[in-house]
Every structure is written in C-alpha cells, then in structure tokens.
Amino acid sequence: MYKFFTVKEANAILPQIKVLVEEIAEKRDEIYYNIARYEELADSEEKTDKEDLEMMYAKSMVMMLESEIKEIIETIQNFGVLVKGIDPVIVDFPSKNDEEDIFLCWKEDEEEIMYWHGINEGFKGRKPISLLKNPPRRSFYNF
Question: In this predicted model, what pLDDT tens digit does every residue of 44-85 receive, in sequence order?
Fold first, then answer.
C-alpha cells in the first residue's frame, strides 16, 4: 500500500528528504573521488606497496559508501516515495491526476515539487504542476 501525496503533502516532507539527499550527494562525491584515485593508481606502471594499499583502500571506500547510500535510500523510501536516481537524486511521490496514477517528481537542487509525470513516462515526461487536472485530496490507496 502506497500513500498518495498531494503537492502540499509532498512539499511538507521535502525538507526532511533534502537533508538525506545532501548526505547522498556528499557520499556520491566521495565515491567519484575514490574511483578517480583508484584509476590513477591503477594506471601507474610500477606500483609501490603503498600505492597497492591505497588502491585497496579506495576500492573498500567505494564499497562502504555505496552501502551507506543504499541505507539512506531505504530511509527516504520509508516516507512512501521512490528514489529513481542518485546523480542527480530524483524522488517520485505517488499521486493522482484525476483518476490517473502519476508521480510528483522532484530533482536534487529544486526548491519544491514543480513537476509530475505518468507512471510509465519517467523523468523525460515531466510536466509542470500547473497542468494537473484535480490535485489529489485523498491519502491512502493501493498503488
């Protein structure tokens, strides 16, 4: 059972989600740094023991950070929303447009919920909130 969000309800929990998204972004940046460091070391012709250890460290950091990101995603999804991407972080809130099931769509760095799309359209099908027919007034339905 999913909660169907109104735009107002989605925007009300967005500050809590943004805090978690900031954590994901920080860990995502650390992952990119460690991947770049690993690749830089892997490209060197003759590796020292120190460089081998640095490569193992970078690889273990990536694995640890990926695990931490997965935990944060689970926490976000416990709000009743779906995380659809992490670079950038995209969060979909189940909703209704009249009787049609839709997602209210938020992307990292957006101030509030400004877009929606059909459940089979994805991010590229985003439309402005102003195009919603009848914003949902209901709370819980099977989805």
Answer: 888 889 999 999 999 999 999 999 999 999 999 999 999 999
C-alpha 132/C-alpha 117 separation (Å) is 10
- Going by the DSSP 8-state scheme, the letter that residue 51 receives in this structure is H
- Residue 71 and residue 75: Cα distance in Å, rounded? 6
CA angle 78, 21, 33 (to 5 degrees): 130
139: CB partners within 8 A, 6+ apart? 3, 4
Q: Would you say 65 and 76 are in contact if contact means Cβ atoms under 8 Å apart?
A: no
Q: Alpha-carbon distance 8 to 110, whole Å?
A: 15
- CA 38 – CA 52 distance, rounded (Å): 10
The amino acid present at 22, given as its one-letter code, is E
pLDDT tens per residue across all 143 residues of the chain: 468 999 999 999 999 999 999 999 999 999 999 999 999 999 888 888 999 999 999 999 999 999 999 999 999 999 999 999 999 999 999 999 988 999 999 999 999 999 999 999 989 999 999 999 865 454 444 33
